[in-house]
Design a protein that fits this description.
The structure is a single chain. The protein has no helices and eleven strands. By secondary structure, it is an all-beta fold. Strands 2, 4, 5, 6, 9, 10 and 11 form a seven-stranded mixed β-sheet that branches. A four-stranded antiparallel β-sheet has the order 1-3-8-7, with no helix packed on it. It is globular and about 40 Å long.
């Protein structure tokens, strides 16, 4: 099970930190990804982080590099997405997902999904 939190409404240039709480599976064996879906758009992978066994290597898509940072706390079964310098085009429902894999990919398929949290960036 994956449960996201931390979404909300923020002004352009602001920051938010999303959290993803994992339970019910062996967290350290899973790579975790953050995805987002804007209204009328396809879901896209934003960032992902490899499993603990692969050294927590992370990946971020070009449009968020330098602004977003994914991190995981393996002791707490948590994954975070720190978002700064937010732009209106970052507005979307953000979901975390888990895949049983050493290394991560911003592309599906993933095994488990959370229900998502809304992020709205006003201009």
């Amino acid at each position: 099970r994956l449960v996201e939190s931390g979404g909300g409404v923020v002004q352009s240039g602001g920051s938010l930190r999303l959290s993803c709480a994992a339970s019910g599976f062996t967290f350290n064996d899973y790579a975790i990804g953050w995805f987002r879906q804007a209204p009328g758009a396809e879901r896209e992978g934003v960032a992902c982080i490899s499993s603990a066994r692969a050294g927590d290597t992370s990946y971020h898509i070009d449009s968020v590099k330098g602004r977003f940072t994914i991190a995981r706390d393996n002791a707490k079964n948590m994954v975070y997405l720190q978002m700064s310098s937010l732009k209106p085009e970052d507005t979307a429902v953000y979901s975390c997902a888990a895949v049983r894999s050493l290394y991560c990919s911003p592309y599906e398929p993933y095994d488990y999904w959370g229900q998502g949290t809304q992020v709205t960036v006003s201009s």
